[in-house]
Structure formats: C-alpha cells, structure tokens
Automatic annotation (TrEMBL):
This is Uncharacterized protein. It comes from the Bacteria. It comes from Geovibrio thiophilus.
Length: 91
C-alpha cells in the first residue's frame, strides 16, 4: 500500500483534480486477457478512493519541507496552506 500512497502524493503535487480523477479511474479500470474493459469505475468509486487516501493527496500538495520554507520566506506559505486545506479537506 505504501507505493500506492506515494503515487497519490505525486499526483497531488503535479496534477489538477480533473487529471487526478482520470489517473485514479485508469488505475481502477479492469481488463480481460484480450484487453477488453471488464470494469470501468464510476465517479462515485473514484471519489471513494480519493476520500480513503485524502491524507496522501494533502501530503503531496503541501510539497517538501524545503518548498514550504521557500514559501514562508516569500510570504506565500499561509495562502498555500489554506489552498491545500480547501482542495483536500479532512474527511
């Protein structure tokens, strides 16, 4: 599960919510041996995964401690934290 959490962190660091949903949907899609889709997740299934792993999304969106220090120095850290909390609220 740790690799999945790291993957989620990387998504939040570099993608919009729409692209994150697409990546999660692609990850959840199942195929048979011939490459035909046997399961395509609903929007509710994608949202359930996002809710289950919201903490990983938040970690990725905050950035590294070095990036956060840079934001503190620039005076933008507080607004960045507010944006992350609004985007990935606690569930």
């Amino acid at each position: 599960m740790e690799a999945f959490e790291k993957w989620f962190e990387s998504l939040a660091a570099s993608m919009t919510d729409e692209k994150i949903n697409g990546a999660v949907a692609a990850h959840l899609t199942e195929y048979d041996d011939d490459g035909n889709v046997t399961y395509e997740p609903t929007a509710e299934a994608v949202e359930a995964v996002r809710i289950e792993h919201y903490a990983a999304l938040r970690r990725g969106a905050y950035g590294s401690w070095q990036q956060q220090l840079d934001k503190q120095y620039a005076g933008t850290w507080e607004s960045h934290v507010a944006e992350v909390k609004a985007r990935f609220g606690k569930m």
